Structures are given as structure tokens and as C-alpha cells.
């Protein structure tokens, strides 16, 4: 009777916020607020202020044509594409083998491949720098890419592993029973089924490489600096809205890639559950 009366009255009742809901809202605001501040500062006419005092898109347009940042973005793009491609290629056989391993062994190996995510990035970067200098004696673009492959590999390993957990072995057995070779089975059956995880892993690796600072600051050669290093060096000497505009474009690009990943496999892929 009470429910019927509430519906018939046509009055909407707003849910009373709980302590957990308030805490989640505060956490969301804490994460998003810096992005809003940076985007707002990029819209200022003269100086870095928030809220913006005189709105303009001048700095957003200038960020797309400033030579130093464009060169840094191109270098970051090349490094990110190469690193993501190699880390995904390396992660693919690893994920497929983890699927066949005993559960206890698979968990231990998975944690091992997650190693770069468990160590503070600056410590890992310093250790990697020491190893590279000892092994090669120099830092160059190839060394930088090796470093980025190492730090990005956990992402495709996890995304591909999460997708293969739902792969029905009977499909591969059926292909083998009609005479398909292991390679033919992989290309025709396995790869199409796990393609969303492969693409998502590549995109996760691309974002990680694109935004990396810790590894890049140690391994970047002076003449070929990626975008995060260009931004850092610019901030050492200047503080104009163009730097906020460059950061805003980078955030927009990363957000678009995250949305694509969410559509492919879901952002809960690292928990081992697909959407």
C-alpha cells in the first residue's frame, strides 16, 4: 500500500547518500580535480590561473604547432608504438602458456610478470638504468625502447590472460581433429577469439609508454627526448598556459584510448573478470 501510494503521488525520492557513497564521491573529485584545473588553466589568455579569467583557445591551438612539443610527441608516439607492439608480441605466448599451467604455477608466474608494477617506478628506473649502462655503456633510442617494453609488458600479459580464461579448449580441439596444424588453429581459431584482449593490451601498453617519465628521464638520449621530458624541461624555465594545453591534449588522447579499452574488454580486466 505504501509503495503504491508513493508511485501514484508522482513524487521522486532522492536516495539518501551513505557514508560509502560520500567517500566514493570525494575520491572521484580528488582524482578528477587536477585534470579540471589543468584544462582550465589551458584556457587562460595570458597566465596560468584557475578558474580561467579570460577564455581563449589560443594555447590549445598553439600546442599543436609548437615545434618542440610536436617533435617530442612524435618521438613518444614512435617509442610507444614499438614498445607496445613488442610487449604484446612477447606477452601473447606467455599468456597462452599461463593458461595451460597449473593454477598455482600460473599465479606465481603472473605475479612475476607483474613485477614492474609492484616496484616503485623511480627505483625500477634507476635499477634498469644501471643494468643498461653496465651492459651497453650508452643510452640511445633502442635502449629507451627496451626499457619501455619491460615496463609495458605486464599490461598485455594481464589483458590477454583474462580473455584466455574464457576461451573454450573444445574449439581448438575441434580444429585439430579436422587436421588443422597448431599454427593454423592459432591463426584461425585462437587469435580471433582473444583479439579484444590483444588489442586492449596493446593500447594499455601504448598509454603507459606514452605517459612514462621515470624510465625516460634515465634512458632518454639528449637529442631524442619524448614528450614527458619536453614538458618537464619546459616547466624548469617557463610557466605559460601552453604547457597546460599540451597536458590537456595528452589527457584527452589517453581518455579516448581508455574508452576504447573499456568497449573491448572492460576496465575490470585486471581483476580477471570481463564485463
Automatic annotation (TrEMBL):
Its main location: membrane. Pfam families: BPD_transp_1. The chain crosses the membrane at residues 20-43, 69-92, 104-127, 133-151, 239-265. It is found in: Cell inner membrane; Cell membrane. SUPFAM superfamilies: MetI-like. CDD domains: TM_PBP2. InterPro entries: MetI-like, MetI-like_sf. It is a multi-pass membrane protein. PROSITE patterns: ABC_TM1. The keyword Membrane applies. The keyword Cell cycle does not apply. Keywords: Cell inner membrane, Cell membrane, Membrane, Transmembrane, Transmembrane helix, Transport. Residues 73-261 form the ABC transmembrane type-1 domain. PANTHER family: INNER MEMBRANE ABC TRANSPORTER PERMEASE PROTEIN YDCV (PTHR43357:SF4). Belongs to the binding-protein-dependent transport system permease family. This is ABC transporter permease. The lineage of its organism: Bacteria, Pseudomonadati, Pseudomonadota, Alphaproteobacteria, Hyphomicrobiales.
Amino acid at each position: 500500500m505504501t509503495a503504491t501510494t508513493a508511485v501514484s503521488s508522482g513524487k521522486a525520492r532522492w536516495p539518501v547518500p551513505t557514508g560509502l557513497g560520500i567517500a566514493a564521491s570525494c575520491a572521484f573529485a580528488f582524482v578528477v580535480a587536477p585534470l579540471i584545473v589543468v584544462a582550465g588553466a589551458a584556457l587562460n589568455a595570458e597566465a596560468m590561473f584557475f578558474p580561467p579569467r579570460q577564455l581563449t583557445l589560443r594555447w590549445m591551438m598553439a600546442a599543436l604547432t609548437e615545434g618542440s612539443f610536436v617533435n617530442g610527441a612524435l618521438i613518444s608516439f614512435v617509442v610507444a608504438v614499438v614498445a607496445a607492439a613488442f610487449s604484446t608480441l612477447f606477452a601473447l605466448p606467455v599468456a597462452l602458456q599461463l593458461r595451460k599451467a597449473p593454477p598455482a604455477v600460473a599465479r606465481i608466474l603472473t605475479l612475476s610478470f607483474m613485477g614492474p608494477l609492484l616496484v616503485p617506478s623511480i627505483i625500477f628506473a634507476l635499477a634498469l638504468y644501471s643494468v643498461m649502462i653496465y651492459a651497453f655503456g650508452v643510452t640511445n633510442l633502442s635502449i629507451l625502447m627496451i626499457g619501455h617494453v619491460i615496463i609495458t609488458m605486464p599490461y598485455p600479459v594481464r589483458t590477454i590472460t583474462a580473455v584466455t580464461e574464457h576461451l573454450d579448449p573444445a574449439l581448438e580441439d575441434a580444429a585439430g581433429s579436422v587436421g588443422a596444424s597448431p599454427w593454423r588453429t592459432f591463426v584461425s581459431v585462437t587469435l580471433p577469439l582473444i583479439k579484444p584482449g590483444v588489442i586492449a593490451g596493446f593500447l594499455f601498453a601504448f598509454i603507459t609508454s606514452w605517459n612514462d617519465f621515470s624510465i625516460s628521464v634515465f634512458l632518454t638520449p639528449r637529442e631524442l627526448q619524448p614528450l614527458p621530458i619536453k614538458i618537464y624541461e619546459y616547466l624548469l624555465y617557463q610557466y605559460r598556459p601552453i604547457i597546460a594545453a599540451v597536458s590537456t591534449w595528452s589527457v584527452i588522447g589517453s581518455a579516448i584510448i581508455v574508452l576504447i579499452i573499456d568497449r573491448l574488454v572492460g576496465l575490470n580486466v585486471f581483476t580477471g573478470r570481463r564485463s
